[in-house]
Amino acid sequence: MPSMLPPWSSNAEESFPVLRQGMCGPEVEYLQRQLQAAGVFTGEVDGAFGSSTKCAVMAFQRARGLEVDGIANSRTWAALDTRRGTGLRPILKRGVCDPSVLVLQKMLATHGFDPGSKDGQFGPKTERTVMAFQRAKGLEADGVVGPKTWNALGMTAPRSFPTPVPLPVEPQRVTARADGTGFYSI
């Protein structure tokens, strides 16, 4: 199955696109799919960051204890990554306890390398298994899982990200209702 990962670089601080209402493109579509997988987006996955996407981002931010502003920034992306085990791959090493370690452990087992219990804890057995995998793939066997090790595991991400483009905004006229009960758009 082809990867649905968006193409970002390995540097988290510069690689997460900041997305907000009014933007459109493949990065918004990916955000919508991540929010859908997290159970907070029920709208159409159309690549347009409208009010339903903003509401979903806000619901996700609220649920994760983040600043609730409806803007998908690096903290929101990182929380989505942790929630789904996809997206930008973190650098992992001994001592880390994180859902991404569980993904790593499962991937190692898929490649025939037994990391022991699949518990999300990067302990000595996982470190030794990572080193054995790295040696087998001709990588530096340092026990640290970075972009090269993720790539060798088949968890690749292309290197550049398209720039989000704002949606064209059509001016709307708002007119008062004749009966004085509110407004409507023309």
From TrEMBL:
Residues 25-80, 99-153 form the Peptidoglycan binding-like domain. It comes from the Bacteria. InterPro entries: Peptidoglycan-bd-like, PGBD-like_sf, PGBDSf. This is N-acetylmuramoyl-L-alanine amidase. The lineage of its organism: Bacteria, Pseudomonadati, Myxococcota, Myxococcia, Myxococcales.
